[in-house]
Amino acid sequence: MESMAKKPLPEPSADRRRRGFEPAFGLMKDPVRLAGESRGFAVARLLTHWAEVAGEEMARKTRPVKIGYGKGGMGATLTLLVKAAEAPMVQMALPVLKERVNAVYGYAAVSHIHLTQTAATGFAEGKAEFAPAPKALPMPDPQTLARAHQAAEGVGDPALRAALEVLAQNILTRPRSKAGA
User: pTM of the entire structure?
Assistant: First the structure.
């Protein structure tokens, strides 16, 4: 019986070693671009940074689905998925949204935005909300706050110190597993 050994990985090139770690998006850039292009999105940023493009409020209400181009590539139609209850408010904001989307393209690529209304759960799963409601975290007790403050006490940068205090609070207040206790 032959052994089923795995093939060894190829040695990284000297060029690859000099670059160090590659950012995660560098590994996902091509698959994201191909997926976007299959839906008509020539600019993947429209999908990956929708909250920045549309604004936080509009991004919670909508999702870009596809872009259809007319003849000659001008006058595209952007199709957005929107909750039925939010559609009238989104409809009123479409001129501003169209300007923001065209700013990403750098020219007036999108001439029309089509809204597709759906239930609050969306099309695919029937389970996932567009934006889940944020869960309120319980306020840590004063002793935990003091321990977190003490843990970050020696840090000179106030922003870093505040972030480390929040991290310490999260670690000190997370539920412990019963198997290890």
Answer: 0.47
